[in-house]
């Protein structure tokens, strides 16, 4: 008697397996949901908050530093950071402790590369791939990663469906006439499949619960070449369950394989189909022979076939076809469930068992290793009727099959999902911990940047008003000084010219004699006009010096207020360009200059607006020689200047005036109005006297000659005085004060000074403003960067925690007890 017949509470064991399976399944579904939510969150974070970096780990050399890896990122493969790889593939920076020899438990069991989230960045040859990777930007890698995350989420959804799928298919196959249909019927607790001593099963009969067909018992004959859909009756023809035997007999004569879907109602609660956890459908396959072998092998390979039950007759052992099938199937499915049927017919059961097991050992070693659970010796024919040890053996086999289905499902459906989840979670952990390191280093970097830029910005902010004040002061002081200086120089010059003296180092021409008096007057006029122009030039030169000084002060202000690293103004102040005209067109040589500016220096003179260049000022008139009107006014002055003075013609009174003037000046000094009146009275007395009248003519003639002589002799000194006075009067006689020569020049010099200083100030202000804007932007960026990196640091830490929780809650990685 075999030990397999010993009672081992098979049903209780099957229940345990079922419970374990259900727990395993539920935990996996939870883990799948949590992992999916983490992946979705990473996608969202990658999209909205942080460009997730894709880490690459390189193995360190073996030896005491086994735990060390170097971490780099796909977008920057050249920068490598030494890291320590934790047991769950979380990475952390290498610390001093890591120099110690790692213990066995610390050695990371997982490889350092990604499993699920691996990006296929290596395109083309190794060299070009390297250059490609280095060219990939952070964002494009993040995009690739996002796609990979999306694929993983889609895959996870499929896994969830697979884990929750309760349908399971058990293919019953074996040698011809081995009792497959009898076994299926016994498992169904109903005579459904035709049983005959002759080989009779010619079609694949897939038995389902009638609930899958709306509770209706029926046989669906699936049309060859169509995808079966129970809801679409164009994909099958229907027959009654009772007619199954006839149908199968009918197919016996035909060559093509058929698939029959058999829906059964009112199934036995204890049958294999009512598993409670999975809906098992039994497929009764045709007996194996040369013709059916290939088809059945192909059928068994289908993914939805969870378990292959191989039925062998204890009487015949394995045929060649059976061996071939078992060999192929065991290579693919590893474990097979073998039912040695018709065991009742065997007398020497031990020998039979030994021989059969020996054969199984050769054909499917792993099935042999688990023979107690996977190889069963039964009598299917009497299982239902018998309640003795045959029935017990059958029951045990049934329970074992149920457990095996679940165990197989655990291995074929749950285990791969669990492995996938474990890999995915450790990928997430690697991704999160590496990004956490990046975030940490970015926090540090942002803080370092802030430490460098914030004080500079603060200093600029607090110095802004001071700079503004300084620039205003320089401008106002410069303009003030230049104006005051100009006013003084011009006033002095005008005073001097007004008294007939030239200014500066200019000299009056020497008197060439009476014959050239006209030329003399012209030259004197020119010299005196040049004097005023010279004064203007001097005032301009002073303004240039003052402006240069101001420009230097502005430069100093720039040095004081502009932060290091900001480019200083490249403008070079050219004092000679002040008060200059920019002429375009013709160069000094008369050639056309293309758009090149020619600076004509020399202020008012250079601009052609000097007094000496004004034709109206150059004109020499008779009045430059004898300003009789002036003489008269000096001696009989009405106390006010007359604007008509310059253009009045000499009349009789003027002539008298000249004479009187001459008279009065004979003595070398003016005798005053009273003296003149007295003289006139005496003259009238004199002319009323006879004798006097006789003498009058020669006396008057002598006096006139004397006067003329005097005037002529005085010309070298009187002409400069006269011309100077006239020039002074002319430049001062403009009605509008602002247009007066002096004030006009003072204003012009002040304006030009202001223009230069303002330009320099504007330049500095602009530099200061843009530097401040830039520093402000840098500070803002660093602050935002710090905030973002801090958030990322926190977020990736939480991802690590969540991954740990998922792993722990689902008890992933623990061996599932079945
Ligand atoms: N004594 C005994 N006879 C059995 C047993 N199982 C099946 N038989 C008989 O063996 C014959 C063949 O049984 P089937 O169930 O038709 O065999 P099968 O493997 O389905 O045959 P095909 O599908 O036609 O290859 C029938 O006469 C059964 O009564 C068993 O365990 N003990």
From TrEMBL:
Keywords: Coiled coil, GTP-binding, Hydrolase, Membrane, Mitochondrion, Mitochondrion outer membrane, Nucleotide-binding, Transmembrane, Transmembrane helix. It catalyses: GTP + H2O = GDP + phosphate + H(+). InterPro entries: Dynamin_N, G_DYNAMIN_dom, Mitofusin_fam, P-loop_NTPase. It is a multi-pass membrane protein. The keyword Lipid metabolism does not apply. Signal peptide: none annotated. One of its GO terms (biological process) is mitochondrial fusion. GO terms for molecular function: GTP binding; GTPase activity. GO terms for cellular component: mitochondrial outer membrane. It is found in: Mitochondrion outer membrane. Residues 164-435 form the Dynamin-type G domain. This is Transmembrane GTPase. It comes from Mycena chlorophos (Agaric fungus). The lineage of its organism: Eukaryota, Fungi, Dikarya, Basidiomycota, Agaricomycotina.
């Amino acid at each position: 008697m075999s030990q397999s017949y010993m009672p081992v509470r098979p049903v209780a064991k099957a229940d345990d397996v079922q419970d374990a399976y259900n727990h395993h399944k539920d935990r996996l579904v939870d883990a799948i949901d949590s992992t999916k939510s983490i992946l979705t969150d990473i996608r969202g974070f990658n999209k909205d908050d942080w460009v997730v970096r894709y880490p690459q780990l390189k193995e360190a050399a073996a030896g005491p530093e086994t735990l060390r890896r170097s971490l780099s990122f796909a977008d920057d493969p050249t920068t490598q950071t030494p890291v320590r790889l934790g047991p769950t593939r979380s990475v952390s920076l290498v610390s001093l402790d890591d120099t110690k020899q790692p213990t066995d438990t610390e050695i990371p069991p997982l490889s350092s590369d990604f499993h699920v989230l691996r990006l296929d960045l290596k395109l083309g040859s190794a060299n070009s791939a390297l250059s490609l990777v280095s060219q990939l930007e952070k964002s494009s890698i993040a995009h690739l990663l996002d796609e990979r995350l999306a694929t993983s989420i889609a895959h996870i959804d499929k896994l969830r469906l697979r884990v929750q799928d309760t349908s399971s298919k058990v293919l019953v196959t074996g040698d011809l006439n081995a009792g497959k249909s009898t076994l299926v019927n016994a498992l169904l607790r109903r005579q459904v499949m035709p049983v005959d001593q002759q080989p009779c099963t010619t079609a694949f009969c897939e038995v389902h619960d009638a609930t899958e067909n709306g509770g209706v018992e029926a046989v669906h004959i699936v049309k060859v070449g169509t995808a079966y859909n129970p809801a679409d009756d164009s994909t099958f023809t229907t027959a009654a369950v009772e007619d199954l035997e006839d149908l199968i007999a009918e197919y016996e004569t035909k060559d093509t394989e058929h698939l029959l879907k058999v829906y059964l109602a009112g199934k036995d609660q204890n049958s294999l189909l009512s598993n409670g956890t999975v809906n098992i459908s039994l497929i009764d396959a045709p007996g194996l022979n040369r013709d059916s072998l290939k088809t059945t092998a192909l059928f068994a390979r289908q993914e939805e076939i969870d378990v292959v039950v191989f039925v062998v007759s204890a009487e015949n052992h394995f045929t060649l076809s059976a061996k071939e099938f078992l060999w192929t199937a065991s290579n693919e499915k590893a474990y097979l469930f073998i039912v040695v049927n018709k065991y009742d017919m065997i007398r020497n059961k031990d020998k039979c068992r030994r021989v059969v097991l020996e054969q199984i050992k050769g054909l499917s070693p792993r099935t042999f290793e688990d023979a107690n659970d996977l190889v069963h010796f039964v009598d299917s024919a009497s299982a239902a009727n018998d309640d003795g040890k045959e029935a017990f053996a059958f029951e045990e086999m049934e329970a074992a099959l149920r457990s095996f289905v679940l165990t197989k499902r655990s291995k074929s459906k749950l285990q791969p999902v669990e492995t996938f989840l474990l890999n995915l979670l450790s990928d997430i952990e690697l991704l999160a911990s590496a990004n956490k390191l990046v975030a940490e280093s970015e926090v540090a970097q942002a803080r370092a940047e802030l430490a460098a830029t914030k004080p500079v910005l603060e200093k600029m902010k607090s110095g802004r008003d001071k700079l503004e004040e300084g620039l205003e002061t320089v401008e106002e002081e410069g303009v003030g000084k230049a104006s005051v200086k100009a006013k003084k120089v011009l006033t002095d010059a005008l005073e001097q010219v007004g008294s007939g003296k030239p200014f500066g180092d200019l000299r009056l021409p020497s008197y060439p004699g009476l014959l050239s008096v006209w030329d003399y007057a012209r030259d004197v006029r020119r010299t005196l006009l040049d004097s005023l122009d010279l004064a203007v030039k001097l005032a301009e030169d002073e303004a240039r010096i003052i402006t240069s000084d101001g420009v230097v002060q502005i430069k100093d202000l720039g040095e004081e207020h502009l932060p290091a690293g900001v480019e200083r103004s490249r403008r070079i102040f050219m004092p000679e360009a002040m008060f200059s005209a920019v002429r375009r067109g013709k160069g000094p040589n008369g050639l056309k200059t293309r758009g090149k500016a020619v600076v004509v220096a020399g202020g008012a003179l250079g601009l052609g607006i000097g007094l000496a260049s004004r034709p109206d000022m150059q004109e020499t008139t008779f009045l430059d020689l004898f300003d009789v009107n002036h003489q008269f006014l000096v001696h009989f002055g009405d106390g006010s200047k007359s604007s008509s003075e310059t253009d009045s013609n000499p009349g009789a009174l003027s002539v008298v005036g000249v004479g009187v003037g001459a008279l009065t000046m004979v003595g070398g000094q003016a005798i005053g109005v009273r003296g003149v009146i007295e003289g006139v009275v005496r003259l009238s007395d004199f002319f009323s006297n006879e004798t006097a009248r006789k003498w009058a003519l020669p006396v008057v003639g002598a006096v006139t000659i004397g006067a003329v002589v005097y005037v002529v002799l005085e010309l070298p000194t009187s002409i400069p005085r006269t011309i100077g006075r006239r020039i002074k009067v002319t430049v001062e006689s403009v009605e509008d004060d602002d247009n007066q020569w002096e004030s006009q020049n003072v204003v012009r010099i002040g304006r030009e000074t202001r223009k230069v200083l303002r330009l320099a100030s504007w330049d500095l202000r602009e530099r200061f403003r843009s530097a401040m804007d830039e520093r402000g932007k840098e500070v803002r960026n660093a602050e935002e960067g710090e905030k973002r990196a801090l958030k990322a640091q926190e977020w990736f830490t939480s991802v690590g925690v969540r991954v740990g929780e998922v792993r722990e809650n689902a008890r992933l990685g623990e061996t599932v007890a079945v």
